[in-house]
Every structure is written in structure tokens, then in C-alpha cells.
Amino acid sequence: MPSRAEKVTTQTLAIRLLRVLRYNKARTERTISLLSDQKKPLFHVLPYLLHVNHKSLPGYVAAKEIACGLCNYSLRQDVSNALIKVFPSITNITDFAKETWPKQRYIDSVLLMGSVGTIGQDEHSDFDYWVCVNAKTMSSLALENLQKKLSRIEQWAAKNYALEVHFFISDIDSVKANDFGIADGESAGSAQALFLKSEFYTTNMVVSGKAPFWWLTPDNTSTKQYELLFNSLKKGVSPDPAWLMDLGNIEKMDPSELFGAAIWQLSKAMDSPFKSVLKMAKLEVFLENIETHQPMCNELKRLVHNTNESSGKAEPIDPYTFMFDVLIRHYSKVKKDDIVTLLQECLYIKSHAQLSVKVADSGRTFKHQIMSLYVSKWGWSEEKIKEFDHIHSWPFSKHVMLSKRIHRFLIQCYRRMSKKFRDLEHTVSQEDMTVLGRRLESFYAKKSNKIDILRSGFGEELYCPVATIRAKRQKDGSRQWTLYSGDFLTAPDKEARPYKVRTDSSTTHLLMWCIVNRIIDKNTQLLLDYDSEPVTEGDLQNLALYASKLFKPLKVNSLGREQLLAKNEITACLCVLNMESSRLKAHVDDIVTIYSTSWGERYIEYGKDAFIRISQRIQEQESLPKRYMISPDYSHKQRLEQDFQKLSPVVFDNALY
Description:
Elements: H1 4-7, H2 10-33, H3 42-51, H4 77-86, H5 93-100, E1 107-113, E2 127-133, H6 140-161, E3 165-171, H7 172-176, H8 193-203, E4 205-209, E5 211-212, H9 223-231, E6 244-245, H10 258-269, H11 273-288, H12 296-305, H13 319-333, H14 337-351, H15 366-378, H16 382-389, H17 396-421, H18 430-444, E7 466-473, E8 479-485, H19 493-496, E9 500-504, H20 507-516, E10 525-528, H21 537-550, H22 561-565, E11 570-577, E12 591-597, E13 602-606, H23 608-620, E14 626-630, H24 637-645
Helix pairs in contact: 3-4, 3-6, 8-12, 10-11, 10-17, 10-18, 11-13, 11-14, 11-17, 13-14, 20-21
């Protein structure tokens, strides 16, 4: 009986290539349609900057040996138009192209992956490019200079267009062997090699150069059949192998990878929770259907192959909505209505569709069309749509409520999956486990004296340009301090209550928690209500100034691999003296010590004994951290700070600038 590969004719492959090219063209058009007028030309300019190396253009590297030049690249009219807009000093594009055109072409393909060209794309979306090369055909110096060139282009795009671009040099043979390097940046190394490849195939879009041959093979092709098909291609016959590259097949996912992929998604959720909800759900759905379903990338490929080739009426497939529909079918089937609702809300938030905002028909994008159909199907009211369109103006408590639902789902999903992992060997290396584990520990773990990180789904929405702090006397004479988002100096408690952020017995702890969680910073106007003596607004503003400078908001995923594998050390320390003590005292009555570590955690400890222990630890480190002290601005300030210095084996500075 002939194999599946023998049944696939050259004509079949050629037809599939046309359908894939049509799908790729639609994704490209959607990507450009969502870019601002200023950024639209960059879609064409960025590949051109990879193709040439000229001193008048961004990314230039003064070296003879550099791996640039794109395969199958030509100067189309849309590229010329874009170059004229971005570089008006180039008066004759044709002559300039002849002058700069490379003699050799080292880059096989430039592809985009991720949310661009889908309903997940917005004005803040990163452009993640795979720059595919055949590393064995070039020197290490040529590759090193290519990396310099790419880094310079990234910096140029960020500085001049506020576009976050990431180029990842991908060796074709390594990708085929599922080798994606160490778990750093956007790579996940040993944690999820096949999962990353599946994500790439699900979302990739060819910007320039060769297309992955995977796109032409049947959805259920075995690796052996895939190799036979690729080797059957003949030069000069469509599909021509000169226009294709072999990044390898995905026959099935490896369940042993799921453990690493799951903890990786928990790690990613610390910075991008809405996206991670969908991806964590995707992992769980895959695990539940591992024996009966193909990888999602193969199912999407089947849909692309089956689109109507003779008609432009069929809507292009959106990888984001395709994934979402698969998830909803699963959780609806197992009657997890709470998860279905959460996924719907996360998709709407991630899409930034803003359906309640009236726009002209000419301004309606494919996102409006897709999300309008969804919310109608979900039965959302106009009030609910408007509510989610104005999520930035929600009171703090409402933001926290949604954030808790998100992180509760992530943890519960991980726990459900963990039960199934018990009988599976995982592929995560020990080093990757250490890196990922310490990131998760920094974000999720509760420890004595640690300043907890708010498990938020939001960023700028939680920031308070103005905050009110109220003190309430307790029966035992102590006070509770409460911070509210906004100006509530004269407002009754009932009116202020929905905007309550946090209550604490310590003003220092209250402000530090808010600063660490990006709720306030040195620019926040702090309003102090009655019954706050001896604490003043000036004391709190000074604390906010020092703390914002020393303990800057941290993205846990930005913690470097080497940093997390090294010894945990104190990186900054701030001592707050006599904040709530009588201003008549000239000696150290109270010390609050705040410090950060190289593993991304922030701690706060009270009393002289704690300070002495921490200062001794600082003294024993190989390198001393930044060390500052602050005290209330009053007549005994100098004597107080002199008294403090006698306690410490290391010197603390009292001036930040």
C-alpha cells in the first residue's frame, strides 16, 4: 500500500503553496492595517536594512565580513515607496539600490511570529523576527557582525518609532533539530523546544525570503514522509526548493515537555498575564487530548490547505481566534463555565477592540468585525462592552479582583496538570529549572519579611498620580494607615472605600508595597489626612523619592540567567530612621531596613537587631550594594544620623544625588 507521502503529487504541493502564499498575504495586509501611518513603512524598511549594509542607513557595521543579504529579495514598488518616506534624503532609490545591493546573500528568510497580523496585535505589540541562516556556510565573525547590525536596527526602531523589535538569529539546522538554546529572553531552551516550534508554526508569517517547507506537507505527515517529500523537490519545478527551507516537521508533541512549558507560562504570566491565560489553557487542553488530537499548528495548517483557492470571499484564518475556539470548545465540553468566561474576558482585553467607541466604517478593522461577532455570540450587553473598554478607569479593587481570578486560574491549571506530570519524565535541564524556579519564587513565594508582589493583570492602570493616606487610631493607641487612589482628603469613608489600595500598621511598609508594585512613585502627589503626627507629607515624599530611585519597578522575566544562577546578594539597602517616632528624640528609636536582592526580591525588616544582622551580611559580600539612610527633616536630624552610623559596620549615605 503506497504511503501518504507517495500520494502527495508535485501538483498538490504547488496548489498548497499558492494557498499558503494567499494566507501569508492576508496576514501581511492585516499586520500593516493595524500599524499607525508613521509605522506602516517600517514593515518594508526593516527587511531592506537587513538586506544591505550602508553607512548612511541604520544598522551599518563597518566590516567586510558580515552575513547580510536576503535570499529571493527584490526592490518592489512598495519597498521603494516606504524607503522614500523613511529616508527622504535618498533622491534616487534605483541608483541607491544598485550602489548598496549585496554581492552575496546569507539570510535565507525573515519571518515574524507572535500576535502581529492577528486580533492580538495592538500599538504596543513587539515585532519578533526570526532571521534564518545556514550558520555552517559563514564564519563566526560574519555572524557576530550580523548580530551587531540587528541590535543597531532594534535600537533605531525603538528610538525613532517607539517600535519594540527583536531579531533572533535562527540557524536552520539547529531549528530543525529543535535546538533553541538556553532559557533566556524569548527562548525557552530545554523547557519547551517543541512547544516553541509549534507556537512558531502556528503564528509565523514570511516577511521576506524562503517559506518553511512544513507549510506544504499534509497535516498528519510523519517525519519520515516529510523527509521523502522534501527530497523529492526538483529545481525549476514548482514548488522550487530554492524558495523553501527545511525547519523540520512536527508529527506530535512531546508530553514530557509540558512540565517545562507550564512553568514557563507561569513565569511569563508575571509580565503578560492575559496572553498567558490563553497559553496555559492551551497546554491543559493539549494534555487532556494528547491521545486524540494533533498539535494545533497542524490543525491550523489543514484549514489553510482547505481554503477556497478560487475565491477571495473566504475570511483569512486568524491564529489567535483559531486557538481561542479550540479552548472554548474544550472547557464548554467539560462544563468549566467560569474558565470560559475568564477566557472570553481575557481575549477581549487582549484584542483592544474598543467596540463601544464609535468609528467610521472606513476606520473599522478586521478586529472590530471578529470581536463584534464574538461578543454577540457571548451575549454581552452594551454595558459590559463599555465596562471592559474603560478598564483603565476601574477602581483599584475591581482591577485586583480580575487579577486574582487570572492568577488563581494559572495556579489551579498548573496544579491540575501537575497531577498528570507525575508519571512523565520532563526534559527541563537542571539549570533551566533553577532559573525558572527562582523567577517563580521571586514572584509567587510568600516569605517572612518579604514585600509581596501584587499578582496584577495590569500595568499603568494601577498607577496613582495622586494618592491620599489616612490614619485611623485603634483601641490600643496604635494607628492603621490606609492609602487611597485619588484625592479623598475631604471625602467621606463610604465614597473613598472603592478606591482603597492597602491598609498597613506602618507608613513605611505601606509606601514600599505601593512602590514595589508600581502603584506610586516619586512623582505621585501624596496627600496626608488628619491625625498623622509626627509624620508629614514631606517625610513621605522623601521616602518615595529614595525608594523609587533604589527599588525601581522590576520585570521578573528580565532577571538575567547568570544573575539567577549566582549567589543571592543584597543589591540595594535603605534605612528609614524614626519615621513615626517623636521628633524630640535625637537618638535612634526606630529603624526600618528595606533591601533588594539579586534574585529580584524586596524585603523590609524592623528594629536594631535586624539592621545589624543585615549590615553584617552586606559587609561580607564581595561587592557592596547602594546604601542610603533617610530621617525626618527636623532639628535633631544630624545627631540622629550620627547615632545611626555608630551601629553600622559599613557607611550609609544620606544624600541620594
